[in-house]
Amino acid sequence: MTESTIRFFTWSERYSMGIAEVDKEHKQLVYLLNVLANHIVLQPDMSKVNSAFDELIAFTSYHFKSEEKIWNACLPQEDFILQHEKEHEDLLSGIIQLKNEFPDISKENRIEQSLGILCRWLVTHMLKGDLYLATMVQEIKSGASFNDAECAAINIINGEGQILLEATLSAYNSLSETAQHLVCVRSQLE
To answer: Do 139 and 152 form a contact (C-beta atoms < 8 A)?
Structure first.
């Protein structure tokens, strides 16, 4: 990101899952989301927006497959794994649908109806589903039983994970309002 860009969503080590490959890919998702945000807010050229969507879609697909390999290598095929994979499918379909519908969204609503949805999903998915599974994987690798690993994951999700989720969503909402104001001011200047 250059100086004339907006960090719509900022990576923080607090979002770290503790699994290097997953964290590296989450950082890339955040970067690509910021690229898309900047094309929508600062440079609303549809070819660049489409290109940013395509890059986000391709990397998201790659990341989901990569993440699922990690979960499946350590965890049994329980309902929560299948539900997590379904969330992945739904998000990927949602991003593709959003890309296709994007030209029809009014300029005034593009931030909330595109970036808002993507940011909220990314934060919620990372700090709920991914954190839950990453905690289970780490606990099992350290020798915990499946039940103990599940208890540890539930405690993290309901404790510090919930607090971080609420704080992050609140900060995002504030930034979203600021970005929306920026779009309105830009429209008035043009």
So the answer is: yes
